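Lab notebook page, bench 4
Experiment: in silico fold of construct C2
Operator: M.H.
Input chain length: 123 residues
Purpose: comparison with the prior construct
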Amino acid sequence: MSTVKVFARANWNDICQVQAGKTYELSATGTWWDWFVRCGPDGYEGKLLQPVAHLKRSPLDRWFCLLGAMDRDDDSFFAIGRRKTWTPKRDGMLCCVVNDIPAMHWNNFGAVSITVSLAGQSV
């Protein structure tokens, strides 16, 4: 098992190398802030932000939801939130980021911790 912090202000957080076809358990805990809004890795609804929701990294997922991606590839985003079972389709680096507008990371604070496990072994 490996636990790494994911910082809300960072454009990308490199987590660990993963292998195609292996199944990983991802779980996250902690609190981060979108300016004055406090939330956990599941994010928040942000109904007042709907007019700009299309600008988020992953428009269909909640604001400040913990997202994963392969090798910092914007086309590979997937929602992790508090918990996700995931099997990558290729080898590479699991990267994480908060679901926000990329140009708005300046007002983000805090970090959540993500734990990655593979059949009870460290990754």
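Observations: The mean pLDDT is 95. The domain at 2-117 is CATH 2.60.120.430 (Jelly Rolls).
Next step: discuss at group meeting.
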